[in-house]
Amino acid sequence: MKITRLKIPGSVEVALQARGDERGYFMRTYDEAIFAEHGLPTRWVQMNESRSVNVGTIRGMHFQRPPHTEAKLVRCTRGALLDVFVDLRQGSPTYGQWDSVELRADRHNAVLVPRGCAHAFCSLEPESVVNYMVDNFYTPAAEEGVRWNDPALAIRWPLTGEPTISAKDAAWPLFKDVAPVAL
Length: 183
Prior knowledge:
- The protein has 183 residues and is mainly beta.
- It has helices at 32-37, 167-170; strands spanning 2-5, 12-15, 19-21, 24-26, 46-52, 58-64, 72-78, 80-87, 98-104, 109-113, 117-123, 128-134, 143-145.
- It contains two helices and 13 strands, in the order ββββαβββββββββα.
């Protein structure tokens, strides 16, 4: 398992190491000792799965307000997606900036999105499946979001046409109208 720090403080890409033979492969997808050694979250309370049928499906940009903020460990287990996150943390040196990681089932990688970041992903292949663990329980009353296509953020989504997106996700406010997250 190789940990690579990303632009947004607290975010990392995790390169998983599949060990294969004629039967297939085995790989460790999480290791508490390695995460602790790197100062990353080690307590996960919920695991979620999402399937996106169409290429260009966008889910997000979601986050939760304190005390319900969530760190997420995200992995694509089928297909591929662009995972995107925006730093909303008050006082962060990268406040208002975004970063992304292409997650691919055949690449065996994951991304850790820290608490206080809005999170979304866009499917790059049909029938893409994403699994992610969170370190806090989903609390509907604490959920908020940021508009996926806010021109001020200028996120470079890999779209060739209009995305498939829920009405809820399309209606989130612009970044300028979202209060910073005080952790």
